[in-house]
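[Target chain]
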Amino acid sequence: MSFRRTLILAVVVAVLGAWVYFVESPRMQADKAPDRLLTLDSGAVNTVTLSYAEAPTIELVRQDDRWQMTEPVATAADKLTVERLLTTIAELELERRIGTDQRQALEVYGLGEQGKQANITLGLADGTTLPTIIVGRTTPVGFSAFARLADSQEVAVTPLIFHTGVKKTLFDMREKRLLQFNPANVIGLELSSPETGRITIERHGDRWRITEPVVDEADSSEVGALLASVSQIKASAFHDGEDPGRKFGLKRPTLSLAMKIGGRGWTRLALGGEVADSSPPAIYAARLDDGQVVEVDRSLSVMLGKDLAA
């Protein structure tokens, strides 16, 4: 009898264990899963459209491992900023939802057709377009904000960090690095200014050699440091569609830089006049390949103003 009871208890325990493992455990895990506005693999996103009520719409397209801006200007996008934005969207955890039977009019939350804060539309590599994320107002109390999907009338309450994180300016989304190149691929360098004249340098294996105004060995560490600094030049402002002429002091540049990059030919940069009342002090510069005028830190003129002795 004792053996029989033991056997029955063992069977009951096994059945209960199986029930917990196969039924209750998955349900408990589902209950713990974060409530997300979108189920999203950020790596599968191929296009991003950011629409704002009082600012130009920004359109971005993935090109291999880079991001390109197509609107409102055609230029390189800041890959890190774009991917951080996508991660913010993919990892968004909702605080709660307000059902259609509980909410007020959508306009109260800033969630009409055009969100008070932003509209975000994502396209996937397979051609699918996800429902537009409409981001509205902040909550009257606390540190939260409202959002919804365009195909849903339900209001979602999000952390405030999501509300602020998706509002991007044109400057935020642009690639700020002025000259994108690998210093190891540079095979020729030319510096020219009214004060120092023209200095040309050529790479010979792992060494550099001055070819003008004299023929001599160059300080390879100095050239390497210069190229590394040039590769990190960042614009602090952009002047789109402007002619790089007298207005910016670029008609007769204070300094010109040209680099011959293997497989790409020559890339040229010109420095111009000082930007009035800028803080920190800035000067105008033009990327002569495409005529893009920017503002850069004034220290750049010192960094590039190397004489023959240097």
Q: What stands out?
A: The first strand starts at residue 45 and ends at 52. The chain has a mean pLDDT of 89. The helical segments are 2-32, 79-90, 160-165, 170-173, 220-230, 299-304. The chain is about 25% helix and 35% strand.
